[in-house]
C-alpha cells in the first residue's frame, strides 16, 4: 500500500489536514555500532523526532526536515523503516511492533515534514 500526500509551493497541503502533534510511543532502534535492536521512547514534535531511554529522558533528536524516510523490505516479517537526515551521514533504523504502527509513524513523520516551511520536496511517499 502506498500513500502520496501532495503539498503546495507554500508548504500547506492541498487537503489542509492537521499534523499529528506529539505522536509518541515505544519503538525499537538499531544501535549505531553494535547493530542490536534496543527499545527507545520516541516523540514527534513539529519537525523533530526526539528519543531516549524513556518519556522523561528524551536526550537525542532526529531532524526530519529534508530527511529521507523509507520502508525496509525484509522477508523476516519485521516492520522496519529508515530515516536519513538531510544534514547528517547517519541512517537511523527503526522498528515497530505491527504494520499499522509502522504505517502510523511513517505517515506522521511525512505530515511533519510537509508542515515545515523548509520541506525539500512537494510530495512525501509512504509505502
Automatic annotation (TrEMBL):
Residues 20-114 form the PH domain. SMART domains: PH (SM00233). InterPro entries: PH-like_dom_sf, PH_domain. SUPFAM superfamilies: PH domain-like. PROSITE patterns: PH_DOMAIN. This is PH domain-containing protein.
Amino acid at each position: 500500500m502506498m500513500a502520496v500526500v501532495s503539498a503546495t509551493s507554500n508548504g500547506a497541503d492541498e487537503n489542509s489536514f492537521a499534523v499529528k502533534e506529539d505522536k509518541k510511543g515505544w519503538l525499537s532502534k538499531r544501535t549505531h555500532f553494535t547493530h542490536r535492536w534496543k527499545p527507545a521512547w520516541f516523540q514527534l514534535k513539529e519537525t523533530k523526532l526526539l528519543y531516549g531511554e524513556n518519556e522523561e529522558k528524551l536526550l537525542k533528536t532526529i531532524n526530519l526536515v529534508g530527511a529521507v524516510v523509507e520502508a525496509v523490505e525484509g522477508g523476516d516479517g519485521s516492520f522496519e523503516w529508515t530515516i536519513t537526515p538531510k544534514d547528517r551521514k547517519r541512517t537511523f533504523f527503526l522498528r515497530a511492533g505491527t504494520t499499522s504502527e509502522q504505517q502510523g509513524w511513517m505517515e506522521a513523520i511525512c505530515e511533519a515534514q510537509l508542515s515545515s516551511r523548509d520541506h525539500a520536496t512537494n510530495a512525501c511517499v509512504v509505502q
